[in-house]
Amino acid sequence: MIISPQFKKNILKAVLKYGTPSYIYSKDILEDNIYKYKKSFRDVNVLFCYALKANSNRVLLKIISKNGFGADVVSIGEMLSALSSGFDKKKIIFSGVGKTYEELSVAADKEILFINVESFEELKVLSKISVLKNKNIGFSIRINPNVDPHTHKYISTGKYGSKFGVSAKEAFEMYKWAKKNKFLVPIAVHFHLGSQIFKYEAYLQAFLKVEQLIKKLKCLGINIRIIDLGGGWGVKEGEVMTPPDKLAAFLSTKKENYSFIMEPGRSIVSSCGFFVVKTLYRKKSGVRQIVITDGGMNDFVRPSLYGARHPVINLNGSNSIVNNFIDIYGPVCESGDFLAKNVNMKVPDRGNLLCFLSAGAYGYSMSSNYNLRRKPAEILVSGKDIKLIRKRQNYEDFLEN
Ligand SMILES: Cc1ncc(COP(=O)(O)O)c(C=O)c1O
What we know:
Elements: H1 5-18, E1 22-26, H2 27-40, E2 46-51, H3 58-66, E3 70-73, H4 76-83, E4 92-94, H5 101-110, E5 114-117, H6 120-133, E6 137-142, H7 168-178, E7 184-190, H8 200-219, E8 226-228, H9 245-252, E9 259-262, H10 266-269, E10 273-285, E11 288-293, H11 302-306, E12 312-314, E13 325-329, E14 338-344, E15 353-356, E16 377-382, E17 385-390, H12 396-399
Parallel strand pairs: 1-16, 2-3, 2-9, 3-4, 4-5, 5-6, 6-7, 7-8, 8-9, 11-13
Antiparallel strand pairs: 1-10, 10-11, 10-15, 12-15, 13-14, 16-17
Helix pairs in contact: 5-6, 7-8
The protein binds pyridoxal-5'-phosphate.
The site of pyridoxal-5'-phosphate (PLP) has 16 residues, from α10.
């Protein structure tokens, strides 16, 4: 991924004005990712429901909703945020393995497109709500297709043993049971295999299992024409996003029979985000060269949690490649608080600004106040325009409530 000198200048300007640690987003890259998805799937009837969990900054959400996307939400917080960021309620779906009675009830009141049900017990709760409210509720059932997406174990969700979804056999019984309640409206069948998936074949295997289920349901008079393939398409850190073209081509062979939903999160926002920290101190620990910065795992947890390796560039210092492997840490009181290890770069000077690429997904949205540290600022760069789109938290926030 090449960063233009102009964009680099703008990142620098942004952090000089708003400080570090900060997330900077490029509107151009975000819109380009959206466009690539639309282009890739232009031959099929597909609704893209952006997975808010990847990044729920409301300014970014408005850009995504304006482009016609729907939303995949996993909490009432995300649902309310989507509704107030311009997403059409009939393009919102509600996923998640542990929705409370209250959450299901609010979803019913908001009349969203459908709720992705993940267990028989959840379906029974939803049924009760629909009867009490005397209201139709659209639903789909999340299938666990027992397919290995070959990704990190923390983000693999479609194999037996995982907490997500139910087997196709159980889903069949659930659709059959739901038929007794006229308020429960079956809209789709859903699966989501995990995240950082690079092989379209995993989707294909799951698709074929879902198709078998749909055929069996037809014999019961339950006609489902929408298949929700979830999200999970991968994008390598430091690279531009390439959409799942082969998957799109496969779906176009099925377009006479079905419409589709896709729930991309990471692949829409990852490459548009940059996480910038300031070098505070350098020291040696045995043979290791340690660099301590002002941004840590509470701001950007992906390296610590998933072992993700995000390329890093020095914005105002040397980027010459030397045979010098350094470890970049944050200020948090944990040995696991690192941003990158074994980075082949010259030791940055104190004050140098280090920029981690592909930080737009699961960056800010997974940040926390661990060590009572403030959450970082978020800034949008659009052409020459630099706009603060979320203020750094105040210390006062910690003293309230
Ligand atoms: C149900 C569901 N849909 C979509 C996504 C988005 O996945 P990704 O960001 O990898 O595209 C997730 C991520 O966990 C998910 O759980």
